[in-house]
Design brief:
Length: 469
């Protein structure tokens, strides 16, 4: 079977053209802006159920790949800012003449940073530009176009599946747009990709044998020895969810559900999580085990200010990954370490909520958090929310991408969320304890505080822009 690999033109971008930047008609907040039969009932009316409807066996998130123009320095910033260890590389030193890729790890969290080499390097040695690539789907022109269009961003959300070929074939049969067909990596692993949204692909990874335990990633990558002399660990342990922003929620959710079989785990409308100035609609999709969580957001229109989601879509030039939620085993330790480095090569955080927020926190979470922990939440700017199952501690960085042009400090696209979930401990069939996915929710009670913070950030950018016409 032959598969076409669509160009870099973002999937669903055509739908964006049907909604001008500032449309006059207000979209109802209880439904998607798609204009079809897709309806949202909102948080209060949503009834959670798990039909166990996956079309293929999904194990867990495997890695996140960022495409950039300088993998060395971007990966070093993330390593320093998040406390993630360099563990593996694929570059000129390993015989890869196609791209430089560096893998960071903390617990089960894997970030891969990839940048292109000149295709002339391989050609000069009578090799095809792709022949030495460790990621078989890598393409020079696409990577450069991606970076020029989106800046720093997520190219691939990779999930480990039981069989990548089966996952790919099943996905395409059920409507997925193919990007890269199943490709064996030696006799160790298989990798395949389908389009997810925008220029983001969903990457399937499966193993046919036990991989080299030195770094436990993919063939073609070698262990980084020098990095072991300077270990970093701020307590991050895994990827909780990867959030995408799309122009229209209905088509995007239907598309992903149709080829994965994932079910709706949660939903929010602007009435649930918006402010008086702006808002969004959101749906969270989950696999059978509810540990691979893929929320998607769309903008709502007709509000006082432009939705933050619309702002993202304009600056990102289409759909893409808005943020990555990283689970910490001790959010207080993680935040103390990250804040030390905020202005020396790390990541800055969105402004903290006002003191009144923390005065009410004892009522909301005093049975879970001690007075000392509540005080530390205030000092570190940590938000706290809970649902009927557990408690969520969370905080958001400012956008982590490049400076784009002088009035804007950070391009308002991708950012990082640090979370810790408390409660929801259950036992598996073997008696081993684990935490249920989504324990404590997604910070519904904190959305208004986050939105206000983002609105204030955007206003500061607008003020700077007005000073520099």
């Amino acid at each position: 079977m032959e598969y076409n690999t669509p160009s870099i033109t973002p999937f669903l971008l055509q739908s964006q053209q049907r909604h001008p930047t500032r449309p006059q008609k207000m979209v109802q907040t209880n439904q998607s802006g798609s204009g079809n039969d897709f309806k949202l009932v909102g948080f209060s009316n949503f009834v959670r159920s798990n039909p166990k409807s996956d079309r293929f066996t999904v194990k867990s998130f495997h890695h996140i790949e960022f495409w950039c123009t300088d993998a060395t320095n971007v990966s070093r910033r993330f390593s320093w800012g998040l406390g993630m260890q360099f563990v593996a590389k694929s570059d000129l030193s390993t015989g890869n003449l196609t791209h430089a890729s560096y893998l960071l790890r903390s617990g089960d969290l894997n970030f891969l940073f990839t940048a292109p080499y000149s295709p002339s390097i391989a050609v000069a040695q009578n090799l095809s530009p792709q022949s030495t690539a460790s990621i078989p789907s890598f393409d020079h022109s696409l990577c450069r176009s991606f970076a020029a269009t989106h800046g720093l961003g997520v190219r691939a959300i990779a999930i480990e599946v039981d069989d990548a070929e089966t996952a790919f074939t099943t996905s395409v049969t059920h409507g997925a747009l193919p990007f890269s067909p199943p490709t064996p990596l030696g006799d160790v692993a298989t990798i395949a990709e389908v389009k997810l949204y925008g220029d983001v692909v969903l990457r399937y990874v499966s193993y046919t044998t036990t991989i080299n335990s030195d770094h436990d990633f993919l063939p073609g990558f070698e262990k980084i020895e020098d990095a072991l002399s300077y270990p970093l660990d701020y307590g991050l342990r895994r990827l909780d969810h990867a959030v995408g922003n799309v122009p229209e929620l209905g088509p995007a959710v239907s598309y992903v559900k149709s080829f994965t079989g994932f079910h709706e785990f949660a939903e929010f409308t602007a009435e649930d999580v918006g402010t008086s100035e702006s808002g969004l609609n959101s749906v969270v999709l989950a696999n059978n085990e509810e540990m691979v969580l893929l929320p998607m957001n769309e903008p709502v229109f007709g509000t006082k200010r432009k939705s933050q989601i619309q702002t993202y879509l304009e600056h990102n030039e289409g759909a893409g990954v808005q943020h990555l939620a990283l689970v910490s085993e001790d959010i207080f330790k993680t935040l103390r370490e990250m804040r030390k480095r905020s202005f020396v090569g790390g990541f800055e955080f969105m402004p903290s909520p006002p003191p009144t927020y923390y005065k009410k926190l004892k009522q909301r979470a005093g049975d879970i958090l001690s007075d000392e922990q509540i005080k530390e939440c205030e000092e570190l700017g940590i938000l706290v929310d809970r649902d009927d199952q557990g408690t969520l501690l969370q905080i958001f960085t400012k956008p982590v991408g490049d400076r784009q042009w002088e009035p804007f400090i950070f391009r308002p696209t991708i950012f990082i969320e640090i979370i810790q979930r408390i409660g929801c401990m259950v036992k598996d069939e073997e008696g081993k304890q684990y935490q249920k996915g989504g324990c404590g929710g997604f910070g519904k009670g904190n959305f208004s505080e986050l939105f206000k913070s983002i609105e204030e950030y955007e206003k500061s950018l607008e003020a700077k822009q007005s000073q520099n016409p």
